[in-house]
Structures are given as structure tokens and as C-alpha cells.
């Protein structure tokens, strides 16, 4: 999704959330957090998967080096 489309979607969602909470700041904060997490979950999930894959490959590489060195 392009940045302008994403920011427009976020703005529309946030306006809807603000109307739902009717000025209750605690509910507004909770709903905004929930909305943001739902909107950006695919992005953060992919980043986490890449990070885990990189860490796994580093561990596997280290393990192979240790095995080759120790014999």
C-alpha cells in the first residue's frame, strides 16, 4: 500500500475511533493503540519473521563453524 493511501486510511480510521469514544480519553487511547496495531501488524510481522530467519541463520552458521573446528 502506498504511503498516501495508508495515511488516508489511518486518518479515516482514527476519525471513526474518536467518534466512537465520545471524548473518553482512556477509551480513545486504547482504541487508537488497537487500531494502529491492527493496521501495522502485517508490516511488523514480516519484519519479525525476517529478524528470526536472520538470527536462525547466524546460529546455524555458528554451530557449523564450531562443529567443523571441534571436529
Shape: elongated
Strand content: under 5%
Helical proportion, percent range? over 70%
Distance from N terminus to C terminus (CA atoms, Å) equals: 50 Å
What is the C-alpha radius of gyration, as a whole number of Å? 21 Å
> Treating each run of at least 4 consecutive H or I residues as one helix, how many helices?
2
Query: What is the tally of beta strands?
Result: 0
Subunit arrangement of the protein: single chain
Provide a descriptive summary of the structure in words.
The protein has 71 residues and is an all-alpha fold. The protein has two helices and no strands.
Gist of the model:
The protein has two helices and no strands. It has 71 residues and is mostly helical. The termini are far apart.
Sequence-ordered SSE layout with sheet pairings:
Blueprint: H1 3-21, H2 25-70
Amino acid at each position: 500500500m502506498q504511503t498516501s493511501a495508508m495515511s488516508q486510511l489511518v486518518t479515516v480510521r482514527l476519525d471513526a475511533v474518536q467518534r466512537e469514544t465520545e471524548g473518553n480519553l482512556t477509551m480513545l487511547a486504547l482504541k487508537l493503540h488497537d487500531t494502529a496495531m491492527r493496521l501495522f501488524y502485517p508490516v511488523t510481522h514480516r519484519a519479525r519473521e525476517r529478524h528470526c530467519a536472520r538470527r536462525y541463520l547466524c546460529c546455524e552458521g555458528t554451530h557449523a563453524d564450531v562443529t567443523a573446528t571441534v571436529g
